[in-house]
Design a protein that fits this description.
about 375 residues, alpha/beta, 5-stranded parallel sheet, 14 helices, 10 strands
């Protein structure tokens, strides 16, 4: 379904030259606040429906008017979206209601959005104009993750999101209020298929300089992005080692990581600077790891390095081999700072999330009533 040729694009099969083939330009828009792998997955699906993905981002002012203050500034949100590997262009200042004019101004053929409902402050479907003009396509929303849900995890300060065993993927909220069928669901079910879709599947070329970094990369943010961009510049192929949830919790404490290992894998794989991810990488960078991946340089940012068991430097081996480098990303953002931002505006965000869920529940119920009426008719 996601093959362009299956949708009638046979130019590649018929031997048409690049000059004759007009790029299919796909428009996606949104707040892209606290960009996560759910956003990335919708952009991946959008890319499969065309050649170029153009992302329109709403300004801080526009978001505040319709749903309350964003967690991240528009500059941070633009940078995050530009870092997603399926994105070709980013446009700041997209209207909250998608218009035909905005599609035409950006030479886009149609608009793509997930199969959830987005509404203005007045409760109007933000895609009604492009839907009426038949310039709208829908992709599957990624179940189990949303900005609303992530904010909820931070506010609750619980550890439910990385429980082990049979309940590992059940993320329960502590309140019993009604949940939106779209952003209120909290169960992410990882599959190998999803990892394959996010991975570029390419091995290093002979002679490539291989760079390795490791960490939690929790709530993937602009600080991570700037760090990975700098790390990638030190070589040709970037491998990111991700620590398991218990390991991250051992050095971060509290309810960290906010995102479990599977969620963090997809978030990092969506980054355009990353070539490969080691799932559950050892905390100490060993001789075996360096040999296995033929690593030329190991990097770490300016954040403090916690010693394993309080005594072992996890980077002792690469330091002895003289292949260790410290990188200054030039960005002060950390996962802890994001959580601080959320908690300092706790009441504001709780009110925002409750209002959003209420609106979505009402829209969903109206949709169900409409379907029942159509069936009865």
């Amino acid at each position: 379904m996601e093959d362009k040729r299956a949708n009638g694009d046979t130019s590649a099969c018929n031997g048409h030259s690049d000059k004759q083939h007009k790029d299919v330009r796909v428009w996606c828009d949104g707040c892209y606040d606290m960009v996560h792998f759910g956003h990335a997955n919708s952009l991946r699906q959008a890319k499969a429906l065309g050649d170029k993905v153009i992302v329109g981002i709403h300004t801080d002012e526009e978001i505040t008017k319709h749903k309350g203050p964003p967690v991240f500034t528009e500059e941070e949100r633009v940078k995050m979206v530009k870092g997603i590997k399926w994105v070709d262009e980013v446009v700041l200042g997209a209207p909250y209601v998608t218009t035909l004019e905005v599609l035409d101004q950006n030479n886009c053929d149609f608009c793509v959005h997930g199969d959830d409902i987005t509404m203005t402050a007045e409760g109007v479907d933000t895609y009604h104009l492009v839907k009426s003009a038949n310039r709208y396509k829908e992709v599957k929303r990624t179940a189990g993750v949303s900005t609303t849900d992530l904010v909820g995890r931070m506010l609750l300060l619980t550890r439910n999101h990385f429980r082990q065993g049979s309940a590992e993927y059940d993320i329960e909220k502590e309140d019993s209020a009604a949940k939106s069928p779209w952003t209120g669901c909290s169960q992410f079910l990882p599959t190998t298929q999803k990892i394959i879709q996010f991975s570029d599947g390419k091995s290093p070329n002979p002679g490539d300089k291989i760079v390795y970094v490791a960490g939690a990369f929790d709530l993937f943010h602009v600080g991570h992005l700037d760090f990975l961009e700098k790390a990638k510049k030190l070589g040709d192929y970037l491998i990111v080692g991700l620590h398991t949830d218990p390991v991250v919790n051992s050095y971060k404490g509290s309810n960290y990581p906010i995102m479990n290992l599977h969620e963090r894998v997809l978030s990092v794989l969506a980054c355009k600077f990353v070539n490969e991810v080691v799932i559950g990488a050892p905390y100490c960078v060993t001789e075996e790891l360096l040999e296995h991946f033929k690593i030329d340089v190991v990097c770490h940012g300016r954040t403090p390095i916690a010693l394993e068991n309080g005594k072992i430097d996890p980077y002792a081996v690469p330091k002895t081999r003289a292949v260790f480098e410290l990188i200054d990303s030039g960005n002060e953002m950390t996962t802890e700072r994001i959580v601080e931002r959320i908690i300092s505006h706790r009441l504001e965000y709780e009110r925002r999330n409750q209002a959003k869920e209420k609106k979505e529940i009402e829209a969903f119920e109206a949709l169900q009533r409409q379907k029942q009426t159509q069936k009865a008719g």
